[in-house]
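Comment thread on ticket #2218

A.B. wrote:
> Attaching the input chain for the structure job we discussed in standup.
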Amino acid sequence: MLNLSKITNYLLVYLLIAFSGVPFFYRAHIAMMIVFLLFPAVVFVIRKQRVDRFFIYYLVVVLIIQMGQMLKFYDLPAKTFLGLHARLLFAYLTIKAVGKKTPQYYINILIFSVYTSLFFYLLSYNGALERFMENTVAPLFTNPLIEDDGYKKWPDIILYTFNPQGEGLLWLKRNSGPFWEPGAFSGFLMIALLFNIIITGRLNNKKNRILMLGVVSTFSTSGLLVMGCVIVFYLMLNRDRGTKYILLPVVFLLGVVAFVSFDFMGNKIISKMSYTDQTYNTRFKSAMIDLKDFSKHPFFGMGRSQNTRYEDQTDARAMHRNNGVSNQLVMYGGLAFVLYFYLVYLSFYRLCIAHGVNKKMALFALLTIWLIGFSQIYFTKVLFLSLTMLSTLYPKRSAKSVRCNEINEENPPGQLNIHRADIIEL
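C.D. wrote:
> Ran it. Output below, let me know if you need it in another format.
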């Protein structure tokens, strides 16, 4: 028998993901999101949810920043302003309507994406079949509301994006999953991996192995590096000293070997560190440009409008930015930057408390978010905005409010270190 409530939850969380990275949805005109916004709004009302004071304060801060930018630059990009509020509402209404199991639904959807993407990924090695999918099937999934933003668009069928570029081991194809490119897929998978580590307290389980397989199939330099960092973070918190002190050197040694041996790791990282390439803004070059712009406008930032951000430049390569961390800083200023990532940290902190996991995992989660954001413009996406609001699902509670049966101080080897002293109020 179909569970209507569960199906609704999956659809809501899927749309949260889709409007963040699935080309059919996120590239479309903002009007499409506004129409779909009715779905979480109706569910929010039917389930008798209430708007938190937190969200009111959130919107007030956003409006202050937007008004500050408007007065500073005498520019009112209505579409940009409206788009931000539509994404904020979509993120908030969705997580409040779905509730505390939002991370679990997210994990399951990403695991499904790994399965479906691997199916199409393997089929793509048949050249004739791949060309048929790209030239005959993919056009059937064209969204007429998609706007031309000057960037290359790969053929997609919503569940999978065909990306012919090869930078992987032995020039294997790269798996983009349903997202705009392989590196983006790896970032969304890392969020699911973080959630599942916190929820289960373990790294070595079936769901995590599937998620990590998905990351490997992307052959994303940043994705593989970040996955290695997450493994190191986990081992640092592991209560089994034998596991910690044996596996940490092994992971480090494997990382060094991969860096030296594979072009798509070491050589690519070195090339991306170049500041002198005048034809393409690398991640590091983007950061340098953004930091220079930030120094001129540290309080309210420069916004997202082309009129204020790029000093009247029109060349797509000159305007290209792919460092999400520095991009967030220069768009909204220093105070908003600190508040944004504090809220992300707070969400993971309370998620750790809710599942009885060492609170240090929240700090490692924040570092992971920064690492994946170093190579992708993630932080204006609906999903990542929702990460700043997840704390509303897990209200403050002290150690006394945590039932003893929720805390297992005798975890089997391999689990995160859990102590009552870690369960404190924030």
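A.B. wrote:
> Thanks. Noting for the ticket: The chain has a mean pLDDT of 81.
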